[in-house]
Write a structure and sequence with these properties.
mainly alpha; 2 helices
Length: 59
């Protein structure tokens, strides 16, 4: 009987560990998706030219 109870405890531990890893993986994937979508947003820098090139020097 003792071995069966130990087996049940171990199975419950393994199930909790698997659930925890699954949640971590989902969170990582969600963060990565948010970063990808943030990079692909239409709003952002208007010009990629450096500021010093845009204006000529005053005489």
């Amino acid at each position: 009987m003792f071995e069966y109870e130990m087996h049940q405890l171990r199975a419950a531990d393994l199930t909790r560990e698997a659930d925890r890893r699954h949640l971590l993986r989902e969170a990582r994937e969600a963060r990565a998706a948010a970063r990808r979508s943030a990079r692909q947003e239409s709003e952002g820098r208007v010009s990629t030219t450096p500021r010093k090139v845009r204006f000529t020097r005053a005489a």
